[in-house]
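Subject: sequence -> structure tokens, single chain

Hey, anyone have a minute? Need the predicted structure for the following. Not urgent.
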Amino acid sequence: MNNNNFTYNRFKILSKKQSDLELSKKLLAVISELEKHDYENKTVKYLGDQYFENEISVDEISNYLSKKQDDIIVFSNETKEFNIFLTEEICGDGIYDCLWFSFNSLINDFPKTPDLKPFFELLKSMFNSFKGLYAYSEDEQILQVYFAEKSYNQVISQLPFEYQKFVPRPNLDIINHFNIPAHYTINKIDITQVPNGFWWINFLSKNQIENLNLNNSENSDWYYIEMVNKDCNMYVLTETFLNINSNDHLYKLQNLIIKTELISKQEKFKK
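Reply:
Had a minute. Here:
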């Protein structure tokens, strides 16, 4: 999705790393949820390039995972217009399975809540099916704003001094002119305790909610809040896609970062 109003978005679900068999069961449950929520044309028929005429089984997924060597594993529908990607994320001391897909595969135009309720229901069911611990809608523009500075500093710190001058410094004044502090990347923090940032859609655990004192936040901090399961709530920041070029959206984001002391909490749970 590229437009003046928002940039490319993807939804990412992180789950505890398990065996190929257990992971296959979770993936099959996610695939089944797509069929239940009026997304029949998104029914997964491909594991990589292999097409399955009949429904995909746990054994077929497990066999595929055991043979796959690449970092990214792709599940696609019959037309290959909708793709689900599976990767691994290192977060602090833990390794997590990460399931993700792009928004433009499921959402057209610029819908607003409550028009997005069916989509939220789908995300919730996929999160539960994948036994998610943390999930969020990752936005390309906000991704750079949050992490460009610390990512650059991390690269520089790992190089010998005589080579550092050859790495071009990104123009951080252009990337982040929104007065948003640098965040810690997901691999540097314990995501069971604190999120890597605030996004349009956030699935936060009890520990994250407690550490950020979100139970005591005012209703105006979020556009929409809903329970996902007994251990997790969904927090939606704005009525439609988060757009930090919008003064209203930017103010809400800045205010929430300050109010929750997010960066100091990330520092506390840094690994």
